[in-house]
Each structure stands twice: as structure tokens, then as C-alpha cells.
Amino acid sequence: MKVEQLELKGLLLLTPRVYRDERGFFFEVLRKDELKAIGIEHELVQVNQSFSVKNVIRGLHYQSAPKAQGKLVRVIAGKIIDVAVDIRPQSETFLRWTSVILDADNPMLFWLPRGFAHGFGVLSDTAIVEYQCDEYFAPEYDAGILYNDAELNIDWGIVSPLLSDKDRNNPSVKQINFKPTGETI
Questions:
Q1: Stretch 63-69: mean pLDDT, rounded?
Q2: I need a labelling partner for 92 at 20 to 30 A (CA). Which of 2, 8, 26, 180 fits?
Q3: Given CA atoms 94, 5, 131, 59 in this order, what sign does their dihedral have?
Q4: Looking at 13-17, 39-43, 60-64, 79-83, which range is the least confident one?
């Protein structure tokens, strides 16, 4: 597996070895020993999957401490822009964001450790996205940031997004008191 450390500390883009032939392809999605070797030591305990149509933006979502979640994200079908925002107040890159393009035709996995808000926008006609989490969903710690917050200025590449009411009404970063995750940066 190829591992690329992205500009925000802790974010990793993982490219598995893909074996292709006339029948299609095969790759290992998850190997606990390989994840541990690159520093992902939390056990993944919950797998979520979503289906979305073109121009849907889901996010920006996170769980606050003590139920913060790390996520391993991949696209099963389609193509998305996947966005991570550093919400660790003790981080040098606090409130900076980065994005990656995830595409089912070129399998990659995106690791977001605890302390990042996460969202994605669908660039293809439809997309199926899977994310494996290292903490269970806890509604009382569920939170979000407004997807088009002027302070973040995220370029989603989507002109007329389709949003849930929740995502449309998330608070701006100026309205949130971010708490440390307790994770080492």
C-alpha cells in the first residue's frame, strides 16, 4: 500500500495494490496490520455507507470529544470531492482544510483522524461512499459546520448543491467553541 501524508498532519491518502485483469480487479480494503504499521491504531468499530446523487454535499460533520471519530473513507461507486477541516484548537493548522478526489475507478482510501470535520460532494451522476469509524455514532456528540462558511472558503466544485436541512443550518466556525480531542498531534 502506498501512503501519502497530506498537508494537514494526520491526514493520509492510502492507495492499495490493485490487481487487474480481464475479469476486473481485486484489492484488500482493510488490513489491520498495515494500518497499525502506519500509525492507525484505533480499532474500526462501525461501517457506514451512503448513496447520493450528483451535486449532493454531505457535511461538514464531526463528533466532539470524548466521542470524536476517526474515519477511513472510500468510494465504492462514482466520484467525490472529500473534504477535511482541522478542528483541533491546539493544532498549527486549526481551521485549515484540504480535499482529495476519490473515484471508484482509481481506488484510494482517505484516513481522517479524530479532530477533523468531514464532508463530501458528489461529482458523478451518483456515488456510493463507505466510511469506517473508530468510534460509534453518538447523537449527543454529533455536530457540524456550515458547508459554505465564509471563513473556511471551501471550493467544493459544485454550483447548486443539494443539502439536508441539517447541513444547510449548521453553525459557522465563529459560533462553535471547539474542544481539544485529547489526541496527540
A1: 94
A2: 2
A3: positive
A4: 39-43
Catalytic residue among 62, 118, 131, 147: 131
Active site residue 141: no
> Which among 61, 62, 118, 147 is annotated as catalytic?
61
Q: What CATH number is given for 2-175 in this structure?
A: 2.60.120.10
Give mean pLDDT, residues 176-184.
80
Is 131 noted as a catalytic residue in this protein?
A: yes
Residues in Cβ contact with 47 at an 8 Å cutoff, skipping those fewer than 6 apart: 130, 131, 132, 133
Give per-residue pLDDT as tens, 115-146. Answer: 999 999 999 999 999 999 999 999 999 999 99
For the sheet containing 109-112, what is the strand order?
2-5, 12-15, 109-112, 71-77, 126-133, 46-53
